[in-house]
Amino acid sequence: MRRRAIDRAGWGRTALCAVVGFVYFLPVLWIVLTAFKSPRDILTSTLAFTPTLDNFANIFARVHYEGGALIETGFELYFVNSIVISGASVGLALILGTGAAYGFSRWPLRGNDTYLLVILTTRMLPPIVLIIPLFVIFRMTGLAGSYLGIILLYTAFNLPFAIWMMKSFCDDLPREVEDAARTEGSSEWRVFFRVCLPQVKAGIAATVTLGLILTWNEFLMALLLTGPETRTVPVGIGGSLGSGIGVDWGRLAAIETLFLIPVVAVTFVLQNQLLRGVTFGTITHGRVRR
């Protein structure tokens, strides 16, 4: 009887999770379906429709008609910009953040907690507070509208997050393995690259995924600090909403569908490492105790 009750409770939790997941996924499903609908099917709001790829074709057309007006678009450039800027900034933040986190974890300084708190507070400031001084700095240094400027800015904003994420994983590493490698004559660099990094793959995956999501969706700074040749997809979407007469919902849904693919793909590729990260501390400490 007790086992049956446990099985029923498990099925109940599974059903509840399925319902909650469906509710959260329903808007995404609706956007994806809208991307394959014709304007007439979109207005009728029906689930039975003839799929079309016209909306995706219109995204990469240099010019198209919208509301009777001739609109020139550059979404192929926006997608490339988003990939380059997000990939470069997350990669730089991960490299710098992992090294700094390992240093904070293994060679703590006097006032170590204070330094970490100061680093964290820089990430807690809302972007709207910093946008005016950043705009002035970018104009004075000539970084406004350049790839270098927006990449460095996103790196600076992702760096505190990367340091705190990776430090928690470095703290959970058993130091006995590192000490054994040093006893065998390994240098600190070799210990870092050959011993520590392979054990914090879960932390690297989590940092990459969350950092990519934060950078990929950023709008305010990309709107004010990028130029016509460095605009990202969120800025392009915002600009397309105000062009022409009315909104082309099918084309907008197609853009959002393509915009979801890179983040979903990265999360899918790193899902095993993300799941390992949930129990990373418990596993490593359990090994040390044994």
Structure commentary:
The protein is mostly helical and 290 residues long. It contains 15 helices and two strands. Strands 1-2 form a two-stranded antiparallel sheet. A hairpin with a 2-residue loop joins strand 1 and strand 2. Helix 1 crosses helix 13, helix 4 crosses helix 10 and helix 10 packs across helix 14. The protein is globular, with a radius of gyration of 24 Å.
Give structural attributes:
two-stranded antiparallel sheet, 290 residues, globular
Please specify the SSE layout and strand pairing.
Elements: H1 2-35, H2 39-44, H3 54-59, E1 63-66, E2 69-72, H4 75-106, H5 112-124, H6 127-141, H7 147-171, H8 175-183, H9 188-196, H10 201-216, H11 220-225, H12 233-241, H13 249-269, H14 271-278, H15 280-289
Antiparallel strand pairs: 1-2
Element-by-element helix/strand order: HHHEEHHHHHHHHHHHH
Radius of gyration equals 24 Å
Outline: globular
Structure classification:
mainly alpha
Largest sheet: 2 strands, antiparallel
Please report the distance between the alpha carbons of the first and last residues.
36 Å
Strand content: under 5%
Could you give the order of strands across the largest sheet? 1-2
Number of helices: 15
Q: Could you tell me the mean pLDDT?
A: 82
Residues in helix, %: over 70%
Q: Report the strand count.
A: 2
Low-confidence stretches: 281-290
